[in-house]
Amino acid sequence: MAASLPLVFTAPRRGRPPTHFVDLSPDERRAAVRAAGAPEFRAKQLAHHYFAGLTRDAAEMTDLPAAGRAEFVDALLPELLTEVRSLACDDGSTRKTLWRAHDGTLIESVLMRYPDRITLCVSSQAGCGMACPFCATGQGGLQRNLSTGEIVEQVRLAARMARDGALGEPGRLSNVVFMGMGEPLANYNRVLEAVRAITAPAPSGLGISARSVTVSTVGLVPAIRRLTEEKLQVRLAVSLHTPDDELRDTLVPVNERWKVAEVLAAAREYADTTGRRVSIEYALIRDINDQPWRADLLGSLLREHLGPLVHVNLIPLNPTPGSQWDASPRPVQDEFVRRVRAQGVACTVRDTRGQEIAAACGQLAAEGVRSN
Fold it and tell me: Catalytic center at which residues (predicted)?
């Protein structure tokens, strides 16, 4: 296992995405506009169209001079993602989209409508280097990190879909979860800048509340501590999947470097600093991590390390085709929840979405690769 750990930090080199307006600081945006032969105030106009108007279509930007408008917009807002395939299910309340980047890289995002919110599950990497054996993305390995622009573009496109009624009634994208392809904290700088662009008020950003953004991790302790120092109000989600180191070394190989106690200690620092409750993600796998004693151990460990500042999000495994892994039976799931709650720890079961459209992370991209 140790030989695979460098993949946590090193992305293979592939074609670099074109520099996008979102990749630039405010000063760099103005400089880029000047370099394109336009006055600086055009940077603010572009930001308004992109973040508030949710568009990169030059035809919609009628406040820009008609002469050279298309070339100017393409230079500053290059097309980063093109839709390959989009599938809907759950009576139209879930839509999963497969995107192709400039270099042919395939990534996924999932847009979901709930009674009280519209949530996007966004990817931060193409593939993943964490090598968790039950995860479709992890089986394909890491292709490359996504740029800040590529991450934010997923959100911009999803917000436009929601606004235009892709999930039925028009609505506003309200929540973003970094739980798609990849380990967000292994692409730390770009994810952080994407979070800032997502949460900045329009016209400087998409204006989604930081408290409605969740960043997940399998437990990269140094990166959790860096995120703590940012003092953001985003929620931290830790993909724990088992409370004991022996099994977690197998299910989440990075556990060989940072053990459960270290991960939970870093999560406690985050909770204490931000005042935000930490979410513990736990994919329940039949006969692997669903034993009653593991539920008891999970509850006691979380009570000890995090107290009231924790919530367990139990995830019925969405099995991938040909996988040996399967979801736990409903009675086993219910008993697991009961035992965790008996320790005084909040525990709920995630609403399963999109099973008929390969909604487990990485499945649609894997199908796309096989079909090429």
Answer: 108 (proton acceptor), 361 (s-methylcysteine intermediate)
Return the bridge partners of 236, or none: 215
Nearest to 177 by CA among 200, 147, 208: 208
The answer on pLDDT for 355 being more than 70 is no
- Residue whose pair of structure tokens reads 């308004």 in the numeric block: 48
Which of the following is catalytic: 83, 108, 281, 335?
108
Find out whether 212 is annotated in a ligand binding site: no
CATH number of the structural domain 21-76: 1.10.150
What DSSP element (H or E) covers 66?
none
Task: Tell me yes or no: is domain 2-11+82-371 CATH 3.40.1190.10.
Answer: no
d(CA 361, CA 33): 38
> At residue 367, does pLDDT exceed 60?
no
- In the chain, what are the domain boundaries? 2-11+82-371, 21-76
Q: Which residue has the higher pLDDT, 342 or 14?
A: 342
| Residue 135 counted as an annotated binding residue | yes
- Which of the 8 DSSP states describes residue 142? E
Q: What is the mean pLDDT of residues 240-261?
A: 98
289 is in an annotated binding site: no
361 is catalytic: yes
Residues 130, 252 contacting (CB under 8 angstroms): yes
Could you tell me the pTM of the whole model?
Answer: 0.91
For 352, what's the count of Cα atoms within 13 Å in the CB-facing half-sphere?
Answer: 15
Mean pLDDT to the nearest integer, 331-355: 91
240 annotated binding-site participant = yes
Catalytic residue, chosen from 153, 193, 347, 361, is: 361
